[in-house]
Amino acid sequence: MKYKVAVLKGDGIGPEIVESALQIIKKAQDLFGFSIELKEGLIGGIAIDKKGTPLPEETLNLCKESNAILLGAVGGPAWDSLPTEKRPEKGLLKIRKELDLYANLRPAKVWKALIEASPLKAEIVKDTDLLVIRELTGDVYYGEPRGVFKEKGKRVGINTMKYTEDEIRRVVRKAFEIARLRRKKLTSVDKSNVLEVSALWRDIVEEEKENYPDISLEHLYVDNCAMQIIKRPADFDVIVTGNIFGDIISDEAAVISGSLGMLPSASIGDRYALYEPVHGSAPDIAGKGIANPIATILSTAMMFKYSFGMWNVSDLIERAVEEALIQGYRTPDIYSAGFKEVNTVQMTVKIAENMEKLKE
Ligand code: IPM
Ligand code: MN
After folding, report:
1. Catalytic residue among 141, 275, 306, 329
2. SS3 of residue 263 by DSSP
3. Domain count, the chain
4. Which of 55, 131, 260, 280 is 20 to 30 A (C-alpha) from 247?
5. How far is the CA of 350 from the centre of ligand 2 (A)?
6. CA dihedral of residues 5, 9, 10, 13 (deg, nearest 10)
7. Given this model, what pLDDT does residue 50 score?
8. How far is residue 321's CA from residue 70's CA, in Å, rounded to a whole number?
9. Torsion of CA 206, 210, 215, 217, to 10 degrees
10. Peptide bond preceding 293: is omega within 30 degrees of 0, i.e. cis?
């Protein structure tokens, strides 16, 4: 089978880190003998400059013809003064919605070799390996009515938190299914002591629980969850929550691992899936060749697992990354005294060499 991947490099460090991921895909092809067709498209600020819109029609069509999408990052100071509707971020929100990418998987793992990079104590974060599943196409992000209106001559801002039963059910099911492939523990996060939307969310989770008797389930209010993630991160396995809570909780979980440069993500729907690093376009270091490519490389590992079912390839990439860290290679964002500082390309070469070495 020939797989098609849409490659959207985007802005800032996007092109550099995606190039690294492509090297890793090439290495995987050589080692395993499958074939992937890569086609590039424009997104974000560069698309605004060249096509006048952050998500041109041809990019969307390219994505719809592909089995998976690999994205770098979007945004930068050049486009910061544009109105919300025209900003690079809008391209991201539009692609999520257009392709119905409703489940956003954000793993946060503490790598043994990097444990000292965490801002929390090593004894608390050790063995942390959690996965936030954030609903990505509903909630206040898209709910209507929205806008700034006039009431009695004064401005009033409105956004609407809205979820249909079906929107909740499909992401909750996905979370139960994925928990089944991991440590079989699911935490559902809501604010059902205050919000009706959350009460519905909790009801649906309880209904779905009947279909997954092998999964242990807990419910947490989002404020309490924010505390528990810091106090006992290693206790969590899969966390499922709505769009806005997930936006916040996943950033919180991300910081536990110590470097944003290490965190991959997948945004999955029933037909399409998009893979991208959690970090942004880092305009301050763009073009310098020193960005950490690992988050994007690990996003590629997620692509092999979730889109192509190639768990062995995914696993090899992850082990190759871990090995590079154990060997002491560090890009500047994760560097500390005593380690070997490398740039983007050097890190990528080390990881590719490790893939070759570790494949038996
Ligand atoms: C994220 C980002 C986006 C979001 C922004 C850039 C629109 O924060 O992917 O988490 O809020 O979803
Ligand atoms: Mn965010």
Report:
1. 141
2. coil
3. 2
4. 55
5. 30
6. 150
7. 96
8. 19
9. 20
10. no
Tell me what pLDDT residue 256 has.
93
d(CA 70, CA 5): 7
| Residue for token pair 């890569």 | 38
In sequence order, the 6+-apart residues with CB closer than 8 A to the CB of 190 are 198, 199, 201, 202, 219, 221, 222, 241, 242, 245
Q: How far apart are CA 272 and CA 102, in angstroms?
A: 10
Which pLDDT belongs to residue 328? 96
Per-residue pLDDT, 175: 98
List Cα–Cα distances, 252 to 125, 223, 226, 247, 268, in angstroms. 13, 12, 8, 9, 21
Structure confidence at residue 258 (pLDDT): 84
* Look-up of token digits 């793992």: 109
Asked whether residue 131 is assigned to any structural domain, the reply reads: yes
104 inside domain: no
We report the CATH number of the domain holding residue 38 as 3.40.718.10
Mutate to test the pocket of ligand 1, among 247, 252, 267 (most ligand atoms within 8 A of CB): 247
Ligand 1 lining (C-beta closer than 6 Å): 89, 92-93, 247
Is 78 in the same domain as 25?
yes
Tell me, yes or no, whether 45 lies in a domain. Answer: yes
Of 100, 129, 251, 315, catalytic? 251
For residue 161, the SS3 value is coil
Q: Is 266 within the bounds of a domain?
A: no
Write 201-206 long-range contacts (CB < 8 A, 24+). 201/163, 201/168, 201/242, 204/165, 204/168, 204/169, 204/172, 205/168, 205/172, 205/240
Report the run of H or E that residue 72 belongs to, with start and end: strand 68-73
- Please report the pLDDT score of residue 64 as a whole number: 96
**Known catalytic residue at 237:** no
The percent of the chain in helix, strand and coil, each rounded to the nearest 5, is 50, 20, 30
Q: Report, as ranges of residue numbers, the positions in the chain whose pLDDT lies below 70.
A: 1
CA-CA distances (angstroms) from residue 182 to 110, 156, 175?
A: 16, 45, 11
CA of residue 100 relative to chain centroid, distance: 15
